[in-house]
Amino acid sequence: MEKRLVSLVILLSITLLFVSMPVVSAQTYSGFSKFTDSIRLFFSSGDNKANLALDIREKEVNSAISNLEAGDTKNAEKNLNSASEKLKIVQILASPDISADVKENIDGVENKIRETKGDYELLDNYLSEEEKTKLSMDISEKVFSYCDELAMQDYALMQKDEKCKSYAWMENKIKQRLNEEQENSKGEIETQVQACMNNPKECNCDNIKLLSEKTKCEEYKSLAIKCEFQNDNSACEKIKMFNLQVSEREKYEKEIIEKYLPAECSEAGVRDGAECKRLILTLSQPKTECIENGEYVGEEKCREKLVNQRNVVKECVVDGKLVDPEQCRNIVKEGNKPTGKEWELMSGECKERGVYDPVACDEIVNLPRSCKDAGYYTKKECEAMILNQNLPKECVDAGALTPEACEKLKLPSDCQGAYSREECEKIKIEQKFPDECKIAGEFDPAKCAVIMIGDQSLVVTAGAEMEYLVRQGLTFEEIPSVCMNEKNFIRSMDCDAELAKKGIVLPPPSDTSNIPKECMINGVSVSPLECQNKLEKNIIIDTTPKECQNADVTNSEECGKFIEEKRIEEGIGINMPPECVGISIEECKKVMEEKGIKVEKIEQVQRVEKVEKVQKMCKEGEVCEEETGYEEVTLPRECIEMGVSDVKDCKIIAGRINEERIKNGEKITLDEDGKVEYMHPEQIEKIIEDSRKTAQEIKPNLEIAEGVKQEIKDLEINMNQIEERREREISGGNVGGNNVVQEQNEINNELSSGDSSGKNNEISGGSESSGSSEGNFVEGGGSESSEGDSAGGDSGITGAVIGSGNKESFLGRFFKRIFG
Prior knowledge:
two-stranded antiparallel ribbon; 37 helices
């Protein structure tokens, strides 16, 4: 036992000494250098082992070149055999982390071989192993991408897949990726929850790759919307773990209300936007503010909820309960009533009408002439009159007094589920898609075209072009470049013409009954790519309005937004008839003209006279006159949609719309660019329900993984072609002695099992028996070789193989003595 322990210590000491020695690149690879490299290779693992094998193979190649130049073909062949074995180690062990470095290294060695003076057939034949190694790096990268995508969709499915068991590094690397993706998902979920609280239409979970985390994201998304837009306390509790910033919605809403103050607030002396909203909520107590778990809580609980959440005017709360709305209005008015001289100077007309606020009183004095002529002398009465004059009659009669509510009311009957014209436009576009795509729920023209082609391939079977060409005796290198897009085969008319020159004709499908008519010309099918392009173009023409086609906007949702903006610019606003949805702007104008509806284009920026006159500067003795000053006023979108260009009328209308929005429960939203929009409560509830439904229905989507799997298959075809070409060269007598290229699987199990635990567990016999002689320090060549100092061959220890001859080598006897 002691002898064994001492021997082991001596061996480890020698090994550490060798390991500490620097790697020196030499033109000839000596036996001592081979020994030290072999020891280092034996005790290395993973990418370190692959990198070391790559370095050793480069030394072997350098030595082979030196031997060839010296006329020593036999030892050059041994060098190249050894180099090939080292490349097999690289092919099996190198992970995608080092694949770029491996390929760069291979490029360097290939260039060195090609630049070698002299025509050496051995080197030319050896290059195929370098080519295979480079291709194996592409395959390992693709296999990792495939397994990574499977793991994101279904980890258990990945574990069962044979391809994902083929590399020792795969399991740890996939676990590392999953941990990274979980961390990334946490941040992305928080980002989307924050986005939901600004605009429910802007947040989505599509960027989350990990399926389990995507499900959580959809659940949190619905909770965030319920918390922010429905004041649902239970939902707020469930998302409080997120570090969320206060939404900017309320700040924007406050500013908008203050800019266009409703008469209800100004006549009560309330000028602060937030307080104004509380007053309107106190007086109207809308159901939309009293939702819990998607249900209205009832009148009594609604009042309690408003009080508890401080969404009411505090002066109107007595003993914890809200007073009557009219009593509340009087309390607020009296509380803001001026005193002293300010009261004495107030207009008697305002006092008679119960308007005690000086600013509101000024507004009454300066009401538009149209209101006074109609007998309306308060801002509230004037608001109602001007709003009713500028909204379609059906909207006024239905009480739909905001642009959003009116727009929804006027939508055509076949736009069920839409809440705006742009949403209806999206539905109209999607209604025109082919039935096959509607059934599949696919409304992207390009993807729809693929569905239209169907499972019936226009060549042989899906993805079979490469196999067909191989069966015809064509190698990968011989495939015309016009037929290839990187590693992928793309059929076209030009490709067919080039293949015809080689005497190869890809057969048409035997059954053309399932091929779309657009893809048949004179009874002959066009190429798959051409067919897809034709179908995509026709789908766009048949479904998408011309305005969107001309702007290259083919997404149905984006087209809906785009065409709505163009309508507003052209003066087609809230008075647009339902027939205009789904047709072009010019066609819509004709429809409106036939119906006697006026189309009036309103400029958003209006130049108006200032209230205060500007005193003109003049010289002494001159008679000065006051100049009229002008200012530019930007009209809000609401006025442009309603065709109101008068600034005074616009301000009054906007104030009334703000009040109606609060009473209706319409919520302000912000997009990424700070654009303000409003959403109806039903629209918000639909998004919440859709998120809940999506979370329940999320299933693995293997489409991407299957695409990568096909790419792997193509690369494997390329690898087989290299093998077949090499076998033909060998059978033709191009290489003598040992075979440079051997089946990779010969060492696959040995390396994988040995390296999976970090180190090889034993020193095994290798494949290189030739060139050994008793007495050599390193088998296959060395300082005592009869072939000279430049003798090559495999090293004594490779970490995977050990050369063994017919007789026991010195190294074998050495280890036998050490380990008894």
